[in-house]
Amino acid sequence: MKPLLPVISAALLISISVALSSCGDSAASSAGEELFNGRDFTGWKTVMARNAPPEATWSVADGVIRCTGQPNGYLRTEKRYGNCRVRVEWRFLKPGNTGVMVFMQEPDQVWPRCVECQGMHGHQGDFWFWGGVGCDAPSMTLQNGVPIRDAGSENPPGEWNTMECVCRGNSVEILVNGRSVNKITGCNVSSGFVGIQSEGAAIEIRRVTVGPLTNHPPTP
User: Fold this and answer.
1) Which residues pair with 118 in a beta bridge?
2) I need a surface site. Which of 78, 144, 192, 217 has the fewest CB within 10 A?
């Protein structure tokens, strides 16, 4: 009889490979993942209105992503995520508009089917829905979204802010600088790409991470 060890080892390696390849489409790995490497846009895709050249809008300098805000468009991950915590550290150079998009779906267009976690100065924490996305609760009171329920967590332009989008099943909770400010449940999407908008204002982004939900117990 031939030894079984090589066969078992090969099977084990295949199983591990399959498990790892599926992480991005279901849940963040237990160790978390740095989505921005501090040097370039490896792992990201750019989509711009009117097929504008992305290099005129997005750049990396001194370990920071710089976005001019013109024209509209977005930077999105090449991998899909669900059941995870998306954390973005960013700042406005002056008051303006941007957003973090979760549960993003193809086709790529401005704007895609997704849940937008609003980043506009003075409104960080609003929800906006694109491409037919919706939720069960709370009821939409904006044209196609849910306004922030607890304002006042933002730092002024020029200072760094942290936005966290906690995606649990088909619910999304937004935390601004560690404070829960809004939550929706019963969304009709529950996984997808993660994106950051170029939407009219110059912003800088120093860190983008996706982590597990273990440190974020469900909130009411």
Assistant:
1) 99
2) 217
Handedness of CA 120, 196, 202, 36 (dihedral sign): positive
Could you tell me how many helices (H) and strands (E) the chain has, helices first? 1, 15
- Between CA 195 and CA 219 the distance in angstroms is 24
Residue 110 one-letter amino acid: V
Residue-wise pLDDT tens digits, 168-185: 999 999 999 999 999 999
> pTM score, two decimals?
0.85
**Percent with pLDDT over 90 in the chain:** 77
Average pLDDT over residues 96-112: 98
**Cis-peptide into 107, omega within 30 deg:** yes
Contact 205, 65 (CB under 8 A): yes
- Let me know if residue 169 belongs to a domain: yes
The pair of structure tokens assigned to 3 is: 């030894």
What's the structural domain count of the chain?
1
The sign one gets for the Cα dihedral 63, 172, 80, 53 is negative
SS3 5: helix
